[in-house]
Amino acid sequence: MTGSVDFDPIAARYDESRPLPNEVADRIADAITTAAPTGLLVELGVGTGRVALALNRRGRDVVGVDLSAGMLRRCRAKAEAESLPPPKLVRADITRLPLRSGSVDAIIEADVLHLVPDWHRAIAEGRRVLAPGGVLVTCGHQTGSVPRGPREWTRYRLRALLVAAGHRPPDAVGAHGADDIVAALRDIGGTVDDLPPIAWSAEESWRWALDLLDARSFSFTWRVPDDAFRAAVATLTDEVAARVPDPDRPVRVPRTWRLAAVRFR
Questions:
Q1: Is the dihedral of CA 70, 147, 242, 227 positive or negative?
Q2: DSSP codes of every residue in the chain
Q3: Residue 174 in contact with residue 113, Cβ under 8 Å?
Q4: What CATH number should be reported for the domain holding residue 86?
Q5: Residue 215, in any domain of the structure
Q6: Averaged over 205-219, what is the pLDDT?
Q7: Domain that holds residue 189
Q8: Strands of 130-141's sheet, edge to edge?
Q9: Which of 79, 76, 72, 96 is CA-nearest to residue 1?
Q10: Residue 140 falls within a domain, yes or no?
Q11: What is the C-alpha to C-alpha distance for residues 56 and 62, in angstroms, rounded to an integer?
Q12: 71, 106, 109, 177: least CB-packed within 10 angstroms?
């Protein structure tokens, strides 16, 4: 394996920590279908199937590839709960796809390449398996320069507390945002077509955000020593209590996914 982040430790609670409403997943699936209306789709880092199952519901032929066996089990369980056909899933590292060159009509990369150290190799593999005229759709959460809402703010503040205590957590191990990914795809011959972004409003609470951190739901906390982690979470909890009168009150937070279709000859 190549050092990509393996989400086995949190597969059971992944969807709770990174919620993507079904109606939003459906809009993303519609955009992907517009960019790639026919043929075989392969999703890199399929995870729990948030996007792939929305395509499955539309009758699309989708193969999901992921490093984590736990995430793939969760994807199968979700499909079974929805009475969907069993998804086609492959456990593999996306930097070494077990697929023939030129055998795929479209590749989907949905919010995963920031977790892959050798992400340039991953997109090169995607390019290799694409048939002539194929398209790679890249999409994912777009963050701003200022943290928005409890989930983003508490993550940002916890990082700062850990750094101040001498325990610098890792930054993104792979691509640093959509601009990096799109530029790299253009460098290997892709023609980029920016698709309309998908925007919605999410509901969060400060207690929910703190509970996610306390459960170590985010990979940047996994290598921090437990005593340092617990001390930082305790400080953060006190800070939130001092600034938020009712941590259980829902807060509306804007969310956006950026999408681009990159075509290759």
A1: positive
A2: --SPPP-GGGGGGHHHHS---HHHHHHHHHHHHHHS-SS-EEEET-TT-TTHHHHHHTT--EEEEES-HHHHHHHHHHHHHTTPPPPEEEE--TTS--S-TT-EEEEEEES-GGG-TTHHHHHHHHHHHEEEEEEEEEEEEPP-SS--HHHHHHHHHHHHHHHHTT------SS--SHHHHHHHHHHTTPEEEEEEEEEEEEEE-HHHHHHHHHTT-SGGGTTS-HHHHHHHHHHHHHHHHHH-S-TTS-EEEEEEEEEEEEE--
A3: yes
A4: 3.40.50.150
A5: no
A6: 96
A7: 8-145+171-201+254-263
A8: 88-91, 62-66, 41-44, 104-110, 130-141, 251-263, 191-204
A9: 96
A10: yes
A11: 7
A12: 177
Structural domains of the chain, count: 1
Cα separation, 137 vs 259, in Å, equals 7
Are 143 and 217 within 8 A, CB to CB?
Answer: no
- Inside any domain, residue 49: yes
b (16+ CB within 10 A) / e for 164-188: ebebebeebbbbeebebbbebbeee
Question: Where is average pLDDT lowest: 94-103, 166-175, 245-254?
Answer: 166-175
pTM over 0.90: yes
Q: What is the pLDDT of residues 50-75, one digit of tens each?
A: 999 999 999 999 999 999 999 999 99
Residues 6+ apart with CB under 8 A from 67: 1, 4, 6, 45, 91, 92, 93, 94
CA atoms of 99 and 148, how far apart (whole Å): 39
Residue with tokens 């948030």: 50
Tokens of 159: 């990082």
| Cβ neighbours of residue 242 closer than 8 Å, sequence gap 6 or more | none
